[in-house]
Input
Amino acid sequence: MRIIRLKNIVQWLSFAILMYGGRVGIHLGSALPCFACPFVPGCGGFCYLMGLQGYIGFGLFAGLAAGKEILVALGWFVVFVALVALLGKVWCGWICPFGLIQDWLSWLRNLVGIRERHLTPTVKKGLGSIKYLCLGMIVVLPPLITAKILPPDLYLPFCSICPGKLILPLFAGETKYLAINLDNEVTLWVSVALVMATGSSMVGAFFKDRLFCLFCPLLALIHFLRPLTALRLVKEPSFCVGCGACRRNCQMDVAKIDQDIAQVQTIECVDCLRCAEACPSSGALSLKFFGLTIYSSSRWDTKGLSL
Amino acid sequence: MNNTENRRDRLLKKTIEKVLAEEKELLSWLKSRSDYQAELDYFLDITAARGTAEIEARVGRPVLNLLCNQVPLELIAAAGYQPVKVASGSLAEASFAAYSWPALMCPVIKGVLTKLEIDKAALKAPWVIPTTCDWVVKFWEARKMVDPSPGEVKFLELPHFRQETESQSKWLSEVIKLKEWLETVSRQKIARKDLLEAESALARVFVAVTQLKKARQEGRLSLIWFLLVIGSLFYDLPDQWAQKVTELINKLPQTATTGPKVFLAGSPIFYPNYKLPILIEEAHLRVVADDLCSSERIFPPVGPLEDTSIHGLLASMAGRYHQGSLCPTFGDNERRVNNILGQRNEAGLVGVIFVVLKGCHPYDLESSTIEMTLKNQGLRFLRLETDYALEDRQNLLTRLEAFRHSLSGD
Output
């Protein structure tokens, strides 16, 4: 089976579980390393970013007093690290529901025959730094909100502007996040920001594969834990002829991948394995789990071709 | 003047007879081989009838001639042309060219210049020429000596550093210009649907080529038949050719030939110059893979299509035919050797035979660097320099046999 087809099956299954799992009693916890949105009614698990904001904001204050809250926060952090250690970036490329929605937009673009736009390295670098801003926002703002330095309506600051919060609940029939919240000035601007962030992400993802992943703070967080991950994309430079098939097929336009180097899993990489499937050199690109090869490029593989 | 012309005409007439005799001799020898199969007749027939008019009659579309393997075949096909890579391995054709051209000149180009005198229809067809080696760059100028009325030609300015981003962008713009030129000469717009169909057809051919490579690696198909079958690709419709290859593969014996497994690299080998493949076989060496631009590298590997817009398809083509080309005329071709190293374990290679055609300077130069790298990696290396002449047969065979002994240790 073509690896991309397998990925699609996994993505659809994950989408079903993470979006509707709660309705049949499935809940995978509050530390998932993907955009499993807690604002989706009846969802099957929560994105860790929500918990992280909550624990940083309230755990540090209320939790310090209670003691027990700290243990809960640490517990979920350990679960998050364990999940990242197990599957690494596969969470982004194969499981994330918001990633699947972006893939649908790419599919739609291809269907109508509109070309994909590629970002220049400078623009890409500039846009990529937004994820660190988001990460900074997740760490810095919640304590300020708890300390009442910032208004409480900014509660869960990243979720307030996360496009997932607007898009994903729509699949469960929840449309209230589409509306501009006129409760007060803060909610007005936050909801305007949410609509704008979502609109630009969706339009961007239509013209550029997985554009939002460039900004995703979760991708950065997973990458920081890379030394612990068991599942890795590995390159054997001595088998690479530099044909560039990997880079041409990379959704994230990882520039390094066709270079004469072993370390190709950059922060943007989402382990989608398109590169390995497109690579015509046997063993040049492989996905390894605890050093064991799970999938490897092959000169004999013609399954990915459009026949 | 008249005497000179008469003499030239007489020589050309004699050359045509010699070419026919050369091919006839090879064809009858091929048919007498123990591994000959009736399914190979199809490829023998289309190779024997490869004149421009014969090809056009067979495929039902006009021929577009090209040199080298950087010209995107699917783009030519999408414009409604039959892409034909013009090459010659004929000793008689190369010898006739010595009448007008330098002795130490690429024998392939020499042969092609004579071929054009024989196949006049090829002169009138449009041409696409990428600026690869010096011989190819100067070819059109020399071709004007054969027929001063210039036909339609499109030069593709090949950037000689394939890993540089600027080179890649420049090459993409060349491919886009090629599309525009093809639309002008064919008087038809190349639609996205045409490109997608041509891509799919080439993908089916690639699947057939992969089957051929596998059969050769398993020892079920000899190098000689491999070269003949793959070389006939340009004289047929892609789907028909792929279908016939599949039929052939299904009929091949399951038993494998034996002998030390070697990789064949270097200058291209074109029909009917099978001197070296025959000698390699006589020396009981088994070629399991190669990187000749007349063989495995006849077109770059086809991959998945992710961006199927017109621009996306052209960009994918541009990348494959430029960055994916292992042509020695590139200035940053060091990683070419990885193709051999990568197949060492997979195919069980023990040695590499590197062919240099006299006058083929890029391969000549590259042979030294490749030899050094491969020897450092523990692979045995044999460099053979030759041309189309048959006088050095015994000498080459002796060297090949000695190489075989060094590989098998007997």
